[in-house]
Amino acid sequence: MLKAVRVEQREIAIGKTLNEVDVTKPFDTGLEYGCPARGTWNIAHIGFLVPECHEVFVCAANCLRGVVLTAAEMGTIGQFSTVTIKENNVLDGNMEELLIDGITSIIEKLKTKPKAVLVYTSCIHHFMAVDLGLCYKTLRKRFPKIKFTDCYMNPIMRKSGITPDELMRRQLYTLIDKTDKKDNGINILGNNYPTDETSDLIRLIRKSKFKLRDITYCKKFSEYNDMGKSKINIAYLPVAKKGLDFISRKLDQEALYLPLSYDSEVIKKNMTLLAEKIGVDISKFDFKEEEAMAALRDAKKVIGNTAIAIDYTFTTAPFSLVKLLLDNGFNVKKIFTDSIGEVDIFNEIKEKYAGRDIKVYPTVNVSMRVNERGQKEKYLALGQKAAYFTDTNYFVNEVEGGGHYGFDSIRILAKNMIDAYKKEKDASNLIQKKGLGCGCQL
Amino acid sequence: MWVPVMKQIQTFTSTYTADVSGVPSALYELGGMSIMHDASGCNSTYNTHDEPRWYGSKSLVFISGLSEMEAIMGDDQKLVDDIVKAAKDLKPRFIAIAGTPIPMITGCDIAANARVIEAETGIPTFGIDTNGMHSYVEGAGEALFAYGKAFIKKDIAKSPSKKVRVNILGATPIDFSVNGQIESIEKFLEQNGFDVISNYALSCNIEKMANAALADVNLVISSVGIKIAEYLLAEFKIPYVIGVPYGKKLKEDIINSLNKAASGESDIIYASDLNEKLKNQGVYIIGESVTSKSLAKAIYYKHGITPIVISGVELGNTFHGDIIKSLKVRENVALEEKDLHIEDEDEIAVAIKGARVVIADPLYKPILSSKTKFAENPHEGFSGRLFRKRIINLVNKF
């Protein structure tokens, strides 16, 4: 049915060697391309982690379409509504009225009233200085049994201050009540996936007297609200760090940031810090480091010198992972990322592997739309974007670290790499599904 | 508590593809570069839900990545510089820039920026006056119009032809998906003795599109095609027929209408009109007006039932623009007096209360009463890719 699109484009050299990369600005900014890898979660996916909630987006039609179809594709459109902003609202200045009356009407029509409503306002509210305080005050007065929180779909703020993704992972927990009646609870904040029971992190917590709470475990709003009883909050994704600090202050809880890493020393340092907080003797904890490294050696035996590509959506610590793989003899050749967050690790890699054929590529630069994806050699990709840009079906289909942590994450990675190397996947079908793990109904 | 009928909310249903997505959709296959002047969201909305051709293709559609500071400072130079740089690297045939809500609020003059870019690059550049608040009909319609105005050869010699020559106008995946419907329409016309000059613009040929002025008549198959049809009527005196060839008898109507219009009998013929036969029998079709009216007439011919069409698609400023001063088409395109143009979910729910049957996209199902029978007719413009596999090629299979 489809005919080839008539574009005759040249290859545009865009990949940079490690020495060529300026860590502060790896690539020129300009027009942006969006590749069809859609596994990362958006703000609508994340909001549905709050049990028994309803989401209402208040935006212009085009902004609404992506999120309403996100909800439709994950089968939650029954918990999702929209209020459309039109030109007359901008001109008449009745944005507050539209928001309040629109949400009132929506709630009145819902047969089962939600425990909470997540209201997403947009760039346009920000620019028009809409009195959101008045809106929420009025809604809370009208519906005293329903909790409201402010969420934001304001991508225009991507490059200033707290990013929309960081903000979402902060606001997600603002519906939790503060309580002075703390128990021996410990929360993991900011994750979309539950952390593996086999992970170092969870195994260590299970050895303590602490009860683990995580929004990904919650089926009822009351379970979510009980997270306010915990004494300690943990986050390990960089995007959750600001939310961790904010929520811990708000709920009077201790914050513990244990950044995801594939570095042995960092893993042990993080676990030691956690052990001290939760009263576990770390000297008696089996990290299973040798098991993990043996798994990695097994993977190397199978994968050999096959070219490997990694993208930044696969893990929040991509350069830590690159270093682990290079240090263990893997042939990492392509890294897809638009920015470099782990500067020290990047510099270590650059110093140690400067002579190697390793290139860093952007993902949003316009050149990535026209450059040939097909490779002359077999590629094993870690991540959906890496799979797309190297046009390979041999890939590990995970995003954001996949809920793995510690040496256990290295063991799982090694196993997944072997599986991916041996068995082709249908990349086109898999990577276009939105929100990996959200039950996309395509 | 009494709940008033509230406009501008969708409690249970979806929203239609917006104007800004309509622009790249219409121009996708034409070798240009479309830029949505937006911060971020338009990118994934378009290429995930409104563009089935995205994966693996190289068509140039980008966003500007507008930031808060650029918007506040009115930094249009960044937009111009970024587009010029990309154009120099990628060498598109043309450039189209579509606006979104924030550029509208800050008063960004998209058309002026387009002129600056055209002067700097020498590449034809169109500023399409979208703001993300209207439907795809406006964006896609304006885009096809701008493209046609720039690229249709005006001095082409029109020699006599034994066959009636026809353009197909208004073809985008938003209304027709990518299941071969446009190829089926072309085949149907060719098998019935017509010479298909071009189609605007799905599975199309840009050389043929430049020769559109050779046509004796145009076939408008969606609201998206109206503006360029009006342009071709005003500029080249090419009449047009509105309708999609669904079902045997409607196909015959369309053949007759095309021949009549080509012979100079009428400037516009509404092939899907039911006229005095249209009675409310409790059967409704919700969707885009041209495709829905055509389906309604095909149903009448096959089953003797005359569905009322509810067009939920907003037409925006398409029919109030100043580029074509004297639009001849009806205000609601293919709709007849008894049909309805309703955009709001609550009002649609009221209109179909008590309906026997509703034919619509599956995402309308939640607003139907339990007594109403539902027949699905998925529409990419409403549910995106969600039911794509279930979209039927009605040209072949009605």
Describe the structure concisely.
Chain A is α/β, with parallel strands linked by helices and 442 residues long.
Task: Describe the protein's architecture and organization.
The complex is a heterodimer of chains A (442) and B (398). Chain A has 442 residues and is an alpha/beta fold. Chain A has three domains: 159 residues, 3-Layer(aba) Sandwich (Rossmann fold), CATH 3.40.50; 129 residues, Nitrogenase molybdenum iron protein domain (Rossmann fold), CATH 3.40.50; 100 residues, Nitrogenase molybdenum iron protein domain (Rossmann fold, 3-Layer(aba) Sandwich). Helices cover 38% and strands 14% of the residues of chain A. In chain A, the strands form three sheets. Chain A has a six-stranded mixed beta sheet. In chain A, strands 3-2-4-5 form a four-stranded parallel beta sheet, with helices on both faces. In chain A, helix 7 packs parallel to helix 10 and helix 13 runs parallel beside helix 14. In chain B, strand 8, helix 11 and strand 9 form a beta-alpha-beta unit. Chain B has a five-stranded parallel beta sheet with strand order 7-6-8-9-10, with helices on both faces. By secondary structure, chain B is of the alpha/beta class. In chain B, helix 4 crosses helix 6. In chain B, 37% of the residues lie in helices and 15% in strands. The model of chain B has no long low-confidence stretch (mean pLDDT 93). Chain B is built from 16 helices and 15 strands. Chain B is globular, with a radius of gyration of 21 Å. Chain B has three domains: 115 residues, Rossmann fold; 107 residues, Rossmann fold (3-Layer(aba) Sandwich); 123 residues, 3-Layer(aba) Sandwich (Rossmann fold). Chains A and B meet through helix 2, strand 3, helix 3, helix 4 and helix 5 of A and strand 1, helix 1, helix 2, strand 3 and helix 3 of B.
Secondary structure: elements and pairs:
The complex is a heterodimer of chains A (442) and B (398).
Chain A (H helix, E strand, L loop, with lengths): L15 E2 L25 H5 L5 E7 L1 H13 L6 E5 L2 H6 L2 H15 L6 E7 H5 L4 H11 L4 E7 L10 H8 L13 E4 L11 H7 L4 E4 L6 H5 L6 E4 L5 H11 L2 E4 L6 H15 L10 H15 L3 E5 L6 H10 L3 E6 L6 H11 L5 E3 L5 H4 L8 E4 L1 H6 L5 E2 L10 H16 L4 H5 L11
Parallel strand pairs in A: 2-3, 2-4, 4-5, 6-7, 6-8, 8-9, 10-11, 10-13, 11-12, 13-14
Antiparallel strand pairs in A: 1-12
Chain B lengths: L8 E2 L8 H9 L5 E4 L4 H10 L9 E4 L4 H6 L2 H15 L4 E4 L2 H5 L4 H12 L3 E4 L7 H16 L12 E6 L3 H4 L4 H11 L2 E7 L5 H5 L6 E4 L5 H11 L3 E3 L5 H15 L5 E3 L12 E5 L1 H15 L4 E4 L28 E2 L3 H7 L5 E4 L12 E4 L3 H4 L10 H4 L1
Parallel strand pairs in B: 2-3, 2-4, 4-5, 6-7, 6-8, 8-9, 9-10, 11-12, 11-14, 12-13, 14-15
Helix pairs in contact in B: 1-2, 1-7, 4-6, 7-11
